[in-house]
Amino acid sequence: MIPFNKPYLTGKEAHYMYEAVYTGKLSGNGKFTKRCQQYFQETYGFGKCLLTSSCTDALEMAAILADIQPGDEVIVPSYTFVSTALAFVRQGAKIVFVDSYVDNPNLDADLIEPLITSKTKAIVPVHYAGIACDMDKIMGLANKYNLLVIEDAAQAIDSFYKGKPLGSIGHLGCFSFHETKNIISGEGGMLTINDERFERRAEIIWEKGTNRAEFFRGEVNKYGWVDVGSSFLPSEIIAAFLWAQVENIADIQAKRKAIWSQYHQLLLPLEQQKKIKLPQMPDFATNNAHMFYLVCNTADERSDLLLSLKMNNILAVFHYLSLHNSDYYRDKHDGRVLSNSDHYTDCLVRLPLFYELKSENVESICNVVVDFYK
Ligand SMILES: *Cc1c(COP(=O)(O)O)cnc(C)c1O
User: Fold this and answer.
1) 292 lines ligand 1 (CB under 6 A)
2) Per-residue confidence band for 273, with pLDDT thresholds at 50, 70 and 90
3) Is 223 in contact with 210 (CB distance < 8 Å)?
4) CA spacing 20 to 30 A to 93: which of 62, 116, 309, 345?
5) What is the domain class of 249-373 according to CATH?
């Protein structure tokens, strides 16, 4: 069976984890945490970076920092993972869902302005498959209406919008290092704080509502409870694992991009024959090869294709279920029909993409897809 995903180990993970254990610093915010954070700040020009235990945690921190209160409205794409909306719902927000583009699962930036009201606090663009949203339009609206932009960059490490790293453009950015992402630590994430106004409070929220980090830097002579927060920081064991991945990011990305390009080349004829749709890359966006997806014409066609791949021992999978139609939110949604989001819910297929996937595997997967459409 060719799995959908296989976590890749660079070889140094256990070594660095052992080092963390052996030196006796196991809790968070130690050497490996600082090394990772500094790397991301310096390499991508993010503002202050804080590692978290997940992207969900980073989104929850962002919702606290944005000071979301019950009744506030937050604009979120419907075609995304639960956490993008859930982090704000926990603070009492009402989620106002936006539809995707016809030819790209990202939120359609031209649909946002009519959804803005006096209660709107934030826009949360999700860079689906690591492909950038239209950030100039989104930041323009944020400036015009005094809103915050929180990038859900969970899939978007090492990807760019007009040359700017994703996660560095919004006021805050949230990354994931879950085992299904490009670089991983099992569970893991990071908050990027690109607006200095939030730096001090972010560190306090990260450390259970205390000013502990300031105390350890010698800036205050005792520390205590100063704000809300939680235990959002990962242990050094996790950060040590992540560091081994970070050191190899160039190699990992090159490999993933080669696999992605091979898929694209082999499946392009099917798109030219209008049998399937392939990812569209806007001129302003780069491809970080987080995912290779195709879009079928109907839900039945997709079920048949997934079955056909499965019978050939290939595990391909569908993706998100529109959040506006979810059991939890259906009754709270304002009733607008979001047909593009529903189309991706019904018709999108993700093909296996992981470091150790061989060129012959990509060929045999594409052969099954091509045969299916004969
Ligand atoms: C993976 C993912 C998340 C959640 O990340 P975790 O690290 O598992 O919390 C959130 N949003 C998007 C778009 C994702 O792809």
Assistant:
1) no
2) very high
3) yes
4) 345
5) alpha beta
- Considering only CA atoms, which residue is closest to atom 5 of ligand 1? 55
- Going by C-beta distance under 8 Å and a sequence separation of 6 or more, which residues neighbour residue 264? 278, 279, 292
Q: Which residue from 165, 103, 155, 101 is spatially nearest to 127, judged by alpha carbons?
A: 155
Q: Which of 181, 176, 175, 173 is nearest to 202 (CA)?
A: 173
CA of 54 to the centre of ligand 1 (A): 8
CATH 3.30.1490.20 assigned to 13-247? no
Cβ-contact 169, 161 below 8 angstroms:
yes
pLDDT digits (tens, 9 = 90+) for 335-345: 999 999 999 99
* Per-residue model confidence (pLDDT) at position 79: 98
**What does the alpha-carbon distance between residue 6 and residue 4 come to, in Å, rounded to a whole number?**
7
Separation of CA 372 and ligand 1 centre (Å): 32
Considering the entire predicted model, what is its pTM?
A: 0.98
pLDDT digits (tens, 9 = 90+) for 153-176: 999 999 999 999 999 999 999 999
Q: What are phi and psi of 140, to 5 degrees?
A: -60, -45
User: Which DSSP category does 219 fall into?
Assistant: S
| pLDDT tens digits, one per residue of 124-137 | 999 999 999 999 99
